[in-house]
Amino acid sequence: MRDVDLADLEAFAAVARARSFRSVARLRGVSASSLSEALRRLEARLGVRLLNRTTRSVTPTEAGERLLERLSPALGEVAAALDAVNGFRDSPSGTLRLNVPTAVARLVLPPILGPFLSAHPGIALEVTTEDSFVDVLAAGFDAGIRYDERLEKDMIAVPIGPRVQRFAVVGAPAYFEAHGRPLHPKDILNHACIRHRFASGVMHPWEFERDGEVVKITPNARVIANSIDLEIAAAIQGLGLIATFAGFVEPHVKSGALVSVLDEWLPPFSGPFIYYASRRHMPAPLRAFVDFIKRRAAGDVASTVLSG
Predict the structure, then answer these.
(1) What are 58-67's pLDDT values in tens digits?
(2) CATH homologous superfamily for 93-156+271-307?
(3) Which CATH class, in words, describes the domain spanning 6-84?
(4) Higher local confidence (pLDDT), 266 or 56
């Protein structure tokens, strides 16, 4: 079986774990047809069906389950063996693949990317923005970045970016002049709102908390979108209230285009973490990134101590 392509084996492993051609294709930035062709090639070479495929589901056959069970650690060892070569370079090289939510892509990564890539010219960075939680390993990513309530327990998690963030509810001054300001979260039910729909179709309720009291609101939506830029633009035009990361609207609040309300009901929460599998051999680009983040965090702490 020496003519079996390693890339075809990797494609099979990713699809078998995710049980979906489309999700793996989307996350890897390739076509589902190319993955399907890789599976057809592999099955033809091996002479056995590995996946049962219908229009609604993808499931490994018994042979596929057995191959995946033996193949997963082998692929990990191959990656580790190839990555060991990086130890002989002056600086690590390779591609670091990250899966991150929109808030991290916009608020956390931008000030990190330039300094990191300048320090490691041999590393290329591939970032996929995904607001739903995915199995980063099955999808072919080296690591993911998420908030603590979405972290898997068997992963290593390292803080990245600001350690405190918060949400904000904002509206245009003209909107408040015409409709008044909500004084309690329940008052939002009497206001027009701009809501965000995630790719999964979910629209989360707006959650507030003060002195141990938690209030969840499902507001009346005048505008529904899956683009934060469009949602902010709608709020600036006075079409309603928007609830989102404070960092998204901070420039507009500072300029006076938007005004925040109910701040006392929106306590801060923990910042994000980069998380990755616990394994003996970390890919060199990932190790370099994690070490960079730790040094950056230590520098921020030292600066705070010195300035204090």
Answers:
(1) 888 988 888 8
(2) Periplasmic binding protein-like II (3.40.190.10)
(3) mainly alpha
(4) 266
